[in-house]
Write a structure and sequence with these properties.
alpha+beta, Alpha-Beta Plaits, four-stranded antiparallel sheet
Length: 280
């Protein structure tokens, strides 16, 4: 348990460091804006420095914006998930402060693309290990649970506000390059981790009872048990079918490795659910 938690903290730290590198070496020098609360903090920091004598660091603003979101996540999403997500925010703020802002390339397109890719790798590995980078991700998740709708439209709407604001304040060219960064980062995150709101896992195992108990002790989800038979071996087994959110995928993968590493598991996208699905 200690070794697993240590690895998780190390991955969250690596994700935060990659995000800070993407910001300070690529996006900030090119005036291209990130997505989520990092982009909001980036805009606020620039507006305050340009329009007022007040100079507030990006790292401090990012931390400040995420405090109320962390409280919301603690109540609505889950304690473990929120703790690691807020840890990611704290480490991001720290790395943004200590890593110097330095322009690597004068080409704005290269900055937008490489910044988006590096940022997405950091976000992707953080999501894959059962945490998030906080901010908009948690807000979108809470909103989606309130109305039981996909996270995607909320993410798009919240990030759209950043793009439109950047366009009005600093020109539409910057806003368009911000769109390039958002598109690039989304594609890379899709490669590393799923962005689907809900997933269906079909688990064929010889240890159905142990698997059921382990899943129910960690995830509060209903499980359907279906009798199955191998066409080649003619052996009778049981298939467990469970619908989860993408944030629960890390915990499910860990349970599978611990209980039955040889279990045949198929994870597929779930487009929609009709009937009861626990939102909390």
């Amino acid at each position: 348990m200690i070794w697993r938690q240590t690895k998780k903290v190390a991955v969250v730290a690596a994700g935060a460091a990659l995000g800070a590198l993407a910001m300070n070496l690529f996006l900030i020098p090119a005036n291209v804006y990130s997505s989520g609360f990092t982009g909001i903090a980036q805009l606020l920091s620039k507006v305050l420095s340009d329009k007022t004598p007040v100079n507030v660091s990006l790292g401090f603003l990012l931390l400040l914006l995420n405090i109320p979101v962390a409280i919301l996540g603690w109540r609505k999403v889950g304690k473990s998930f929120t703790i690691y997500s807020f840890l990611s925010v704290v480490l991001s703020s720290f790395f943004l402060t200590i890593i110097p802002i330095k322009q690597v390339s004068a080409d704005i397109l290269l900055n937008a693309v490489f910044g988006g890719v590096i940022l997405a790798v950091g976000v992707g590995i953080t999501l894959k290990w059962g945490a998030s980078t906080g901010g908009v991700d948690i807000i979108a998740m809470v909103l989606s649970r309130m109305k039981d709708k996909p996270i995607g439209p909320y993410m798009f709407a919240l990030n759209g506000i950043i793009i439109i604001t950047a366009g009005f304040l600093y020109g539409w060219e910057k806003a368009l390059y911000t769109l390039v960064t958002l598109y690039t980062s989304t594609r890379v995150i899709d490669t590393i981790h799923t962005r689907h709101a809900k997933l269906t896992a079909m688990i064929i195992t010889k240890k159905a009872d142990e698997m059921k108990k382990a899943i129910q002790s960690k995830l509060i989800r209903g499980i359907t048990i279906i009798q199955a038979k191998g066409a080649f071996s003619n052996e009778s087994r049981e298939m467990l079918m469970i619908v989860i959110t993408r944030y629960e995928l890390y915990d499910l993968e860990r349970i599978l490795k611990e209980v039955d590493p040889n279990a045949f598991t198929n994870i597929i996208q779930t487009t929609n659910i009709y009937g009861f699905f626990r939102k909390e």
